[in-house]
Structures are given as C-alpha cells and as structure tokens.
Amino acid sequence: MCGIFGYIGKKENAPDMVLEGLKTLEYRGYDSWGIAWIKENKIEVVKNTGKIADAKGIQLPPANSAFGHTRWATHGGVTLANAHPHLSRDCTLALIHNGIIENYSEIKKELIEKGHTFLSETDSEVALHLTEEYYKNSDSLLEALHKSFSRFEGLNAIIVMDAKTKKFAAVKNGSPLVVGKGKDGNYLASDAHAVLPYTQDVYFMEDEDYILVDDKSVSVYDGSLSKKSIQYTQLDWKPDLVSKGMYPHFMIKEIHDQVDVLERIIQKKDSEIHVLSEEIKKSFGTYFVGCGTAAYAALAGTYLFSKIAKYHVNFTVGSEFGFLADFLTDKSLVVALSQSGETVDVIESVKKAKEKKARIASLVNVLGSTLNRESDVSILLSAGIEKAVVSTKAFTAKLAHLILIAYDLSGNIEVGRKYLRLARDSTKEILTTKNLKIISRLAKTLSAKEHIYVIGRGLSYPIALETALKIKEASYIHAEGFAAGELKHGVIALIEKDTPCISFVPLDETHGSNLAGAMELKARGGKIIGISPQKHDIFDIHLPYTDASVASVIPSVIIGQLLGYYLALEKNVDPDMPRNLAKSVTVK
Ligand code: F6R
Questions:
Q1: Which residue has a Cα nearest atom 5 of ligand 1?
Q2: Does the keyword Repeat apply (predicted)?
Q3: Contact 502, 458 (CB under 8 A)
Q4: What kind and span of H or E run contains 67?
C-alpha cells in the first residue's frame, strides 16, 4: 500500500520521471500524491488529493533528485496536509513512508514537548520530526534515521531526502522497497517494475537494510549499520508488459492475458511442479494460507487435492492463521498463495510458521517479493505483471498450478496438462466478441440491482465466492457467494421476485444438486443465471462454456470476472482502481 518512487542522478528531469513512476505505481494507493525535489540547498514539494492520473497539466521544474508518493490513507483523512512528502520547517529534509508506525502517538507527544509543530494527522510526519531531531545532534543522516526507525513499532518503509548532503536514506521492515541501479543514476521504488523503463538491475531490500543513495553510488548497511555487499538481480521483464496496450483498462487486458498465462503454465517442465509436490509428500500436514482472491484459490486447492490426489489439506485466511498455528511442528508445510508476495497477513503467517520451524512453500507472482524470498520452495505463477486492483489472471494462474500439483501428486501430471489445454481453449471461446457482447448486455440488465447471489457446490463453491468478490469490488453492487446447500439454512429468506442468482452448474458430481439449489431459488422468484456447459430449462439466462473437466473452474470464473468488469463499466467505476482499495495490502 502506498507507492514510492525516487530518482537521484545525472538526469535533469527527476520530478517528471517521478511523476511517471508514480503513475505506474498508482494501483498501490490513490487517495493523494506528492513529489519533492532538491533545488539548490532546499526542498520543494507539490501535492494533490485524488488520483495522479486525473492531475493534468502539471509543470515540474528541472532537478536531478526527486521522490514521490501515492497514498492509501491509514492515519488521517484524505487531505492535502496528510499527503506525502512531509517537509521539515527549514525545507532541508523531506520524508515519504509506507506502513504504520504503531507507537506514533507517544513519540508525537514527546516531540511536541520539544517544540515540534505538526502540520498533518499522519504517523509519517512523526518519522520526519524524530529523524530531524536526531539529525540535529549527528552529522550522519543514516545514523539519525537508524535511531528513529529503531524506536518504531510496526511494518514500515521510509525514505528521507536530505538537501544538505544531496542524499536519500532509506530503510524498510515488512513493506517492500527496491533499489534500481541505472547508468545515469539510482532509483528507489515500491515495486520493481516501476524502474524497468530505466534499468533491469535491481536490489530487493531485506528487512532492516539501511540504504544511502546519491547520484553515483548505493551503499547498504545492516541493522547495526555495518556495511553489506550488494547483489543486484537482473530482471528479464519487458517494460511493455506494464502497458494496457489496445485495452481501455488493465482489468480487461489481464482477463484476456489468461489464455497466454495458461499456455505458459502448461509448458512448464515437470521439475518446476515436482518441487512442491515433493515437499507436500514429505510433510506431515500441509496448510494453505492466502487472503481475498488468493484465499479462494487456496480453498479451491483443498477441493482439488482431495478430489484428484486424495490428500487432505488445511486452509485458512491469512488474518486468522496466527490463531490456528499452535499445532504446527517442524514437520508441517505451509503453502502461502499470493499475487504480490507482500500481503502483510500472509507474511505474518509465514513468520509464525517459521517460529514453529515449519517448512514454507509459496505460489507467488512477484519475483523478489518478500514471500518469494522467505520461502524454502517458491513457484512463480508466471502470470506476468498484474496491475488492476481487481485480481484476475493471478487467480487462474494459482488454480492452474494447483491442478498440476494435484495431478503430479497422483502420478498423472499429463492428465492435468490435458485439462488445462481444454480450459485454455474454453477460455479462448469465452473471449470472442460475440460472447463478450452477451455478458456486457447481461451486465446492463443487472446494473440497477442492489443484491446478487452467487451459488456453487464443491469446486464451484470457491468460484462462487470469487465471482461475488469480483462483482463487489468492481461495481460496488452487494454480491454474496454461498455454498448452494447452505441456502436453505437462512440465506433463502433474502430471495425475492427477480433477485439475480448466479448458479454455477458444472458437469461434475455436483450437477444435479446444483440444479436443485437453483430450483429452490427459482421457486421463490429468483432470476437464475446459469453458468454451465449445458443449457437447462430452469435458467432464465444461460452463460455457456465448453467443459474442461476439473479445470472448468477456470472458464467458469472467467465468466464471473467478465461480469464484474462489465458491471464496473455500467456503474462508471474504474475497475483498475476501485474506491478504498489498493493492490498490495501491506498494512494490518
Ligand atoms: C481481489 C484482490 C484481493 C487480493 C488480496 C491478496 O481482487 O485483489 O483480494 O487477492 O489482497 O493479495 P495477494 O494475492 O497479493 O496476496
């Protein structure tokens, strides 16, 4: 949460570069934004509330060092004063921050007693004043930052700009920060892909790393300020992976990307899948953990493993994992699922599991992310960069991997590949213009509804939950997913005449009982939208897809994603940046 981008070097257009960098990171937070740059021996700042994409005609001066921030508000409302960067009174220090300083209020009191005046309600401004206070009595910016950061509780990334020494000092604990080493200068960013237009050499900062950057060099120090050597990773990503191309939104581009993503996963070598199946075989108990969409993929995994591999897997959402972790042992395996690899509740779960000496595996999309680095075994999802806040291709990439791993465990990985090929072909058919028109027409008729219910059984249950989530976040319509069999235990009381009810009816063992659930809804006036390979009289509207056996979860959820997307368009919501959300949830 919160996007950070900084440049210091020979180029004269640092503020403009930062503006562009922030635009690529805006999915991390879009409440407000701000940029600071050094002009002679002082720092100047521009700030604004709202999305950076909406800020037109900004004229920024030339400068060769600048940094900026896009905010996802935690402490303090969405106001200009609360926007970052925060600037010291004498305009020589500026600070940007991602995270939460949990003990900020006691430190703030202490600083007020010392005469500091605060202009914002943020915890971040406390970091600025405390660092400034320590810097008064030290000639080392890094030492001052070290002293202040050591007092903070919580997970944070902080960068301080110093106009006197023309340096940036940075530190992180939990929240991500990446250093990019370019030919003409150095970069700092919250996500590696933001620096791709300038360099492919990046250093993923470790927790408790302190960094000092100027126009020529980058120095890294450990938590006791002893110098460390720096190993850059060479990224082989292409900058054009980050563009929307011919599509109006990243969400629809990423929905279309899924055909290629599936192909890449089908092409993976057996050995790339074996690493995780071998860990599962060795363990005494495997536990899946994830949040939001990743949690629904994990839940789907429990069904897939039971059905295909006859393995029992436990599952819980990241925010609850800590309360269920007491029984973990050194023989347990925790498999964390995450697109970003930075979701704080997942990272905390992994830390808890490590305390219990459990092995850690992950299915993660972002190379170099905390989860990717903290895992004993990590499979990269190969979904490509996912920018829309509403996750789509990372979900199906997780499902595809889980299908392959489950078949690998049962000794039939080729069968898994065969079904994924069917799912890829079925997805291609769904994405034809004719089908897209049908789904967008349906969205028109649903857009005035207040509630939508989504039901499924077995493997379709997590798909129902995920479809409801797509509709909620993309269109703000209240949508709820339920296990079809649970309806009669209360939920059915909510069904009135014409209530839209989306029913997943795959051709598996749940077919008959799913139809029965839909009939119960129809008998109470529900309008049934059947997502199924087969037409049925009970459906008021039928959205078909070609059956892909167990991999039908993929085409069926893609229909749910498309419905979410077209509902967003009908409701005039930007599906790439829905209100109150951010792509990477790095705060509790
Ligand atoms: C929903 C969505 C979120 C994320 C969740 C976990 O569309 O994007 O629910 O799935 O915040 O994020 P990752 O997968 O990055 O751990």
A1: 292
A2: yes
A3: no
A4: strand 65-71
Q: 215 and 118, same structural domain?
A: yes
Residues 256 and 360 in one domain: yes
Please report whether residue 516 resides in a domain: yes
Q: CATH number, domain at 27?
A: 3.60.20.10
Atom 8 (ligand 1) nearest CA: 391
Are 232 and 254 within one domain?
A: no
Q: Which ranges in 385-459 belong to alpha helices (H)?
A: 393-409, 413-430, 433-446
Ligand 1 site residues, Cβ closer than 6 angstroms: 291-294, 338-340, 343, 346, 390-391, 469, 473, 584-585
The per-residue pLDDT for 237 is 74
339 alpha carbon – ligand 1 mean position (Å): 7
Distance 500 CA to ligand 1 centre (A): 26
Residue 208 maps to a domain: yes
Q: Output the residue whose Cα is nearest ligand 1's atom 9.
A: 292
Judge if 236 and 371 occupy the same domain.
no
Residue from 340, 391, 398, 472 to probe ligand 1 pocket by mutation (most atoms less than 8 Å from CB): 391
CATH of the domain at 423: 3.40.50.10490
Identify the pLDDT of residue 62: 97
Cα-Cα end-to-end distance for the chain: 11
Q: Is 583 a catalytic residue?
A: yes
Cβ partners under 8 Å of residue 546, min gap 6:
422, 425, 426, 429, 533, 555
3-state secondary structure labels for all residues of 185-196: EEEEECCHHHHC
Model's pTM, two decimal places? 0.89
Radius of gyration of the chain (CA): 25
Decide: 288 and 454 in contact? Cβ < 8 Å: no
Unique residue bearing structure tokens 């291609």: 428
Give CA–CA dist 298/313, Å, rounded.
10
SS3 content of the chain, % helix, strand, coil (to 5): 40, 20, 35
Pick the closest to residue 438 from 333, 300, 545, 318 (CA basis): 545
* Residues 61, 37 within the same domain: yes
pLDDT tens per residue, range 390-414? 999 999 999 999 999 999 999 999 9
| Residues 237 and 264 placed together within one structural domain of the fold | no
Q: Quick check: is 282 catalytic?
A: no
Q: Each residue of 111-135: pLDDT tens digit?
A: 999 999 999 999 999 999 999 999 9
Residues 165 and 216 reside in one and the same domain:
yes
The Cα 312–Cα 286 span in angstroms is 8
Q: What pLDDT is recorded for position 299?
A: 98
Give a yes or no: residue 588 inside a domain: no
* Total number of domains constituting the chain: 2
Instruction: Determine the residue of 289, 293, 348, 561 to mutate for testing ligand 1's pocket, defined as the one with the most ligand atoms within 8 A of the Cβ atom.
Output: 293
- What is the pairing mode between strands 156-162 and 93-99? antiparallel
Measured between alpha carbons, how far is 556 from 360 in angstroms, rounded to an integer?
31
| Domain region containing 215 | 3-241
Please indicate, yes or no, whether residues 256 and 190 belong to a single structural domain of this protein.
no
Q: Are strands 86-87 and 93-99 parallel, antiparallel or unpaired?
A: antiparallel
